[in-house]
Write a structure and sequence with these properties.
Elements: E1 4-12, E2 16-21, E3 24-29, H1 32-37, E4 43-53, E5 56-62, H2 65-75, H3 82-91, H4 94-102, H5 106-110, H6 117-127, H7 133-137, H8 142-147, H9 154-164, H10 169-179, H11 186-197
Parallel strand pairs: 3-5
Antiparallel strand pairs: 1-2, 1-4, 2-3, 4-5
Helix pairs in contact: 2-3, 9-10, 9-11, 10-11
């Protein structure tokens, strides 16, 4: 119904912002991360998702369209409501969510308030193939380029080697991206990336 709302931040409460636009103050639920950076009196833009149910109508607001898109994916998971989705987005940034999905790290989701192990596993099961990490990280970032590398390349072999050693995909990709111009073989890439990760 609303793409975004732009207006003056009248005041902040624990989990929502009152945004005044056109003489009307909208109660817009936000993440704790957004609450930590917004300041009363400033002009803000929140990208919104409007939810209508039998017992409530609520606006949820996000500082980036990509964050709203992730919220919409999360509430599409069976058993994940708006409050749980906001809890996840308060505890994790978009790259952490994408990385947790790709590495099937259910514990990362379970660290968010109100998310139990079963729900965390369901999120991974239902969203793993729906979230493109390159889209989330930005396709022009070095780490995204590494993740998109060909499956038979030295980069891909080094990436899988680091993951098998316990590193998550995002940190492994970032380490490889920082050394890939200095090494040629998968073994060289792996060793140099390990040195970088140990710093």
């Amino acid at each position: 119904m609303y793409e975004y709302i732009r207006g003056k931040l009248a005041y902040l409460q624990e989990n929502y912002a009152a945004v005044e636009a056109g003489g009307v103050a909208y109660r817009i639920y936000i993440t704790s991360k957004a609450s930590g950076v917004l300041k009363s009196g400033e002009e803000i833009t929140l990208y919104t998702h409007f939810i209508v149910r039998e017992d409530e109508m609520a606006l949820y607001g996000f500082m980036q369209p990509a964050e709203r898109s992730m919220f919409e994916k999360l509430i599409g998971v069976s058993g994940v409501g708006p409050k749980a989705a906001m809890s996840i987005l308060s505890a994790m940034d978009l790259s952490q969510i994408a990385t947790a999905l790709m590495s099937s790290d259910s514990k990362a989701f379970a660290r968010a308030n109100g998310i139990g192990p079963k729900t965390a596993n369901r999120i991974i099961l239902e969203l793993k193939d729906k979230v493109d990490i390159a889209d989330v990280l930005g396709s022009d970032t070095p780490a995204a380029a590494v993740i998109d590398a060909g499956q038979n390349s030295a980069v891909s072999e080094a990436l899988e080697a680091l993951i098998s050693l316990g590193y998550n995909r995002a940190e492994a990709a970032q380490a490889i991206a920082s050394v890939k111009e200095l090494a040629g073989t998968a073994e060289e890439l792996t060793l140099m990336a390990l040195k970088r990760l140990s710093l």
